[in-house]
Amino acid sequence: MHEMSLVEGIRSIVIDQAAAHGFTRVTRLRLEVGRFAGVEKPALSFAWDVAMRGSPAEEAELEIIDLPGQALCFDCGTTVEIADRLDPCPLCGGGKLLPQGGDEMRIKDMEVL
Amino acid sequence: MCTVCGCHDVPVFDAKPAAKSATAPFANVLASNIAPKPDHHHYGQGPAGVSVPGLSQARLIEVETAVLSKNDALAEGNRRVLSALNVLALNLVSSPGSGKTTLLCKTIEALGDTPLAVIEGDQQTSNDAERIRATGARALQINTGKGCHLDAEMVGRAIDTLRPRPDSILFIENVGNLVCPAGFDLGEFAKVAILSVTEGEDKPLKYPDMFTASRLAILTKVDLAPHCDVDLDLYEANLRRVNPQIEILKLSSRTGEGMAAWLAWLKAQMGDHP
To answer: In whole angstroms, what is the distance from residue B60 CA to residue B51 CA?
Structure first.
């Protein structure tokens, strides 16, 4: 459900861009997704096919670019990169980490006709 | 002039003409992507001003727009309206059945004549808004239908209808869901996560985003703790693990235990919020 609203957001941006740049079809769209964005990629891809019908991005390929997740460790005070939200600090092993970014969801660019 | 290297139409280096082995697809890509000179391959001159391997340059449009940018812009609009009226807006988030509405009813009774209004979000029914109205407070119900969260547009319309009074509190009870509401800014001053002791100590670990996004976590139904073999310290430790800065309150809406600290927190925010 959540992924559906995200894809609806992309659809509306695509329609705005089509009006601004005068294109009729998107063949590929690259989406940057932070590691902590809470996005389920299979759900996003499924929602993509459904939500883009009738838009310039119908049948467009969705390419997802993963962005790393950084977090501030409250034990050693260092900003570290972690793969998973609940990973301990790779430097000191501390368990209290606050994400610093990594929740991005951004359309980077699109290939259009 | 090229925005990347500063060169003009003059070739920057002499190269042999493009190899004859260039295959048809590449030839096609090159033809549309580069300056039309045989000895100068100049990338980055399409509408995007940048070259990306595999994407046809002439048709590449850089967007760099956040997917939720429309929601975020509407949320900022809500925040401006609320701020101008000095309204303290709190976005109450939790799983279904944590006791949000019960806590709100008890809070409204305890706040007495403090001006306030409530926006209720649920997929269906206006049961919650009716419960709030029964306390004498103004309430507006939003039914999201299939939707799993409130968004800034829905809340903006609700604010237009409710017209919160200056110097009041606006409680926004989000759809019961520990996932999606974390990502949707409504224009609130803070998110308040409500977690009942019967839900399990590892809830913050299972749904970290919501607790990371919240300023305050309220552990509710603490009167049930002795009957459920729960470890309240472990609840706190897990909340702090996913959000070291989170404030934590424990209360029971039923017995009134801990309500004073919650009311004091609300009063403090009324003085503090921008």
So the answer is: 8
